[in-house]
Amino acid sequence: MKGINSTLLILLLGLLSGILLAPAFNLPLITTLICFGVALVLFAATHFILKKNFTKNSISSILAFVLFCCIGLIEVHFENPLQDDKHYLKQTDFNSEIQLKLTVLELLKPGFYDAKAIARVDEANKEYSSGKIILNIIKDSLNTKTTIQVDDIIYTKTQLLEISPPRAPYQFDYKKYLKNQDIYAQVNLKPLDFIKINPAERSLKGLASMFRNRINQKLESYDFNTKSKAVFNALLLGQRQDLSNELRADYINAGVIHILAVSGLHVGILMLILQFVLSPLGNYRKSRLIKTIIIIIAIWCFAFITGFSPSVLRAATMFTFIQVGLLLNQRQAGLNALITSAFILLLFKSQLIYEVGFQLSYAAVFFIMWLYPKFNALWEPKNKIVRYYWQLILVSLAAQLGVLPLSLYYFHQFPGMFLVANMVVLPAISFLLIYGLLIIFLSILNLLPQSLATGFDILLTWLNRFVSFIAEMDFLLLKNIYFSATLVLVTYLILISGGSLFDKITFKKSIFFLSAMILLPLTLITSAYLQSKPEFYVNHRYQKTIFTQKTTNRNLLLYSTEAEEIPPILVENFKENQLITEVKNDSLRHLYINSEKLILKIDSLSIFNIEGLNPDYIILTQSPKLNLDRLIKRYPNAKIIADGNNYKSYVDRWKQTCKQQKIPFHNTYEKGFYKIE
User: Fold this and answer.
1) Which end of the chain is more exposed for a tag (fewer CB within 10 A), N or C?
2) 139-161: b or e for each residue (b if 16 or more CB lie within 10 Å)?
3) What is the pTM of this model?
């Protein structure tokens, strides 16, 4: 692609490679620093020699790639909060009582019984400390609203709790998700368990939170519909905590959930609106500079209003570079800005690469910038209205193609009505964004008339009804789609190779495209072969016993007392992550065989002394009254597993016995499900 800054692209790819390879290699810091030093010396020497001889060579590009790969490895090491000796996990153990001083960083979507927030640990047992935790505050029955705000300082004496692992296979790994955000623990507090102090100074995030609270207080007197208010907060203030699960599901199923996550779409619309409004200033050098300054200031003011959420910061950074590129009349200003913003953001925070929003937003914007001009060149209608909707379809199609592999991988569903929904929703969002900003401005000045607020409420209500109508078309919503990480890579190869054919069909491009197409069935065949390995799972369900087994034929067997006890989500998760051919329900048994390994279930009958039996695994369930020492003596080589259908006091006693006897013990209460291969 002509006009792309190849040097910056190489540096970005090197940095990405280093960040992604860091967990796999896990090299000592000294080794990484030595590699960095060698790469730096070689790059400097090669660059000097080639520059002196006025020659170009791919060696310098390779060395630059390796150099920034090392930088990525080093960055991941230094960003790891557990490297800090003052991290709270270095100062205390889980479940031990600790005195904490916390600062609230961010409010999360509240649960039914508690308010949630991310907090920074400033002190642990009156000593300086660092790190982030999840703060859960149990709601008072008399006051269910959150009593904490961003920047509030909290003193408490409580237990540090470990975050629960997944209870069933392929369940959303909340523990891993928080770990990618450098959060390793949580605390549960009742309203009387802590002292809250207002800070002497507010951070930018704190000021933004106060600003949003003030807006919401101003709008309280205008009697907005509950759903409309929730969409208003999501659309304009970047706060999705008030969205109900039903409303969120409607927007997801309709394929328009992106409009409720303030990101590149909203910032891009704002930039285009400002460019149109400021167009009378002309296209002179000074006027372009003035327009750029105004637009950049407006973008970052919008980022402030929405609380500097990660998605808005990404978008604001990206469109700031786009504006600068347009000012300098750079060719491919958009794509170069995309590369530059991604490079800078990852250079400051490597863990962004693991955020789904980061991946989706950059994929969508890249494909819009790359594919939209190619699509638009195929046909350009003369009628303005037809042209507008044709361009809207092309933008939606390009964006959907860009995020499709990632969406299928993370969400395992495809909304068939996404084009229809976006043709209505996207034009509406442009108008609602302007209308909403006007509502915010007038409400702050106490000049908002009731009629204007009512009109906005009606428009948001219609929007919600339309989205719900689209979401109800279940027959066009494809669910439980299996899509692996390998398929994501193969699909992107197909899209990139196919898109390159739009410019000019050549022999090399055709071979590239056909090779990518051949990889697709080969990947599916390989996946089916690899998944033919039998697996047995002990799931964690409170007061329930549920086992799942995948056979060599990729049949899924579900063992339980009654089929009704099996949650549908358990089956859906397997279908989304495995090429399951058939699902069967079966009753619980005492003996199972998986890959020639014998599994013995001991329930309330406590029968285990069976002649000739030599199990590899023993599952304790239904709180059997047995002498564990005697059981271990009978089967000294067996691994012991306790599921969620046991009294916790029993499980704690068994754990201590196994620890004393040095026998492997897995408690699903603490460690989640257990997999036997």
Assistant:
1) C
2) beeeeeebebbbbbbbebeeebe
3) 0.85
d(Cα 304, Cα 323) in Å, to the nearest integer? 19
pLDDT of residue 298: 87
Domain span at 160: 88-201
Please tell me the distance from the alpha carbon of residue 401 to that of residue 403, in angstroms, as a whole number.
6
Position 134 confidence tier, pLDDT thresholds 50, 70, 90: very high
Secondary structure (3-state) at 104: strand
Tokens standing for residue 409: 């991988």
Distance CA 238, CA 219 (A): 16
**CATH number of 129's domain:** 2.40.50
Structure tokens at 647: 């009294």
Residue of 562, 558, 567 lying closest to 538 (CA atoms): 558
Q: How far is CA 610 from the centre of its chain?
A: 49
Tokens representing 178 are 């928080």
pLDDT digits (tens, 9 = 90+) for 150-165: 899 999 999 999 998 9
Mean pLDDT over 615-625 rounds to 94
Residue 450 and residue 524 share a domain: no
573 contacts: CB under 8 Å, gap ≥ 6: 168, 169, 170, 171
Q: Exposed, middle or buried by CB within 10 Å (0-12, 13-18, 19+), for 402?
A: buried
Phi, psi of 155 (to 5 degrees): -110, 135
Is residue 1 domain-resident?
A: no
DSSP-derived 3-state class of residue 132: strand
